[in-house]
Design brief:
Blueprint: H1 2-19, E1 21-23, H2 47-54, E2 57-59, H3 86-93, E3 98-106, H4 111-125, E4 141-149, E5 155-164, E6 170-179, E7 188-195, E8 198-208, E9 214-218, E10 227-233, E11 239-244, E12 246-254, E13 260-268, E14 271-282
């Protein structure tokens, strides 16, 4: 079975190479240059690579570590971090101080495929395993934030590792940073999910709602716009990237009772695949 799955992984990378385009990560496509996994089981083994790429170090168990060091990194004439609800901003700047609970509602027509992907892909490689059964998330989710710093000790990105509290299984293992796309004035939040010889990347455009909520969106567009991308490296060390018809919408908001929540919708093309709902509670002040 292991040999079969390894062959399928190689076939998958070949598919993305054929359907994608050659990219120069040290030149015009440097915005796609992000961490990759050194082996098929992703987990958190890629963290050392992230530190080496930044020329700095990893900071584990940092007090009140955040996915972003300061939401003002996103500020432009289109976005003002000062208009966000304090709780929303606190979550992104002090993520490790928050506890998460999650619920998932699958499109019933997509659920069988989701379970197959979780079993033969997500759990096997310890990456991108969206829960498919309610009891899997009944006890909540553990999350750890590890900061990646440059030579001067400044935060350049943050690794966010999320596991099911019930089983310890990896759900997501991603690197968060602010990145400006060549076609965009507004900086995006870039989330990279390392894979063997490649990664999946999401570029999310931020905007502030009237109630101080934060919206993050990756919609349909051209290559180089906000959205989802698959990056693969072939045996010759050349890279190819393809835009994926995967579209996400996040709304991070405070409800009527003062609780911080997130609605996360994932679509494949125009089909809503799954909706995730998160409840976040501050555990450290």
């Amino acid at each position: 079975m292991r040999l079969i799955m390894a062959w399928i992984d190689q076939l998958t990378r070949a598919f993305w190479k054929i359907t994608g385009r050659p990219v120069d990560l040290s030149g015009p496509h440097s915005w796609l240059n992000a961490v990759r996994s050194p082996r098929s089981e992703v987990g958190d083994d890629w963290l050392i690579n992230a530190a080496e790429d930044a020329g700095g170090a990893l900071v584990d168990d940092a007090t009140n570590a955040g996915l972003l060091s300061d939401m003002r990194q996103l500020n432009t004439r289109h976005f003002d971090a000062g208009k966000l609800r304090p709780e929303v901003r606190d979550f992104y700047e002090q993520t490790s101080s928050w506890r998460l609970e999650v619920w998932a509602q699958w499109n019933p027509f997509c659920l069988p495929a989701g379970r197959l992907l979780a079993r033969y892909f997500g759990r096997r490689i310890k990456q991108l395993t969206i829960p498919t059964r309610p009891l899997e998330v009944a006890l909540g989710m553990d999350s750890t934030v590890t900061l990646v710093t440059d030579r001067e000790g400044n935060q350049v990105s943050a690794a966010w590792i999320r596991r099911l509290r019930s089983s310890g299984e990896f759900i997501y293992s991603g690197l968060y940073r602010v990145q400006r796309l060549p076609s965009e004035e507004q900086p995006s939040i870039n989330v990279s999910f390392p894979l063997e010889s490649g990664n999946v990347q999401i570029f999310l455009r931020p905007w502030v709602g009237r109630d101080g909520s934060l919206f993050l969106t990756s919609r349909a567009g051209r290559f180089g716009d906000n959205g989802a991308y698959m990056l693969v490296e072939d045996d010759a060390g050349e890279f190819h990237a393809a835009r994926i018809p995967l579209h996400e919408t996040f709304r991070i908001y405070v409800d009527e009772e003062g609780t911080l929540r997130t609605d996360h919708i994932i679509k494949l093309g125009w089909i809503r695949v799954v909706q995730l709902h998160y409840k976040m509670e501050k555990t450290r002040r």
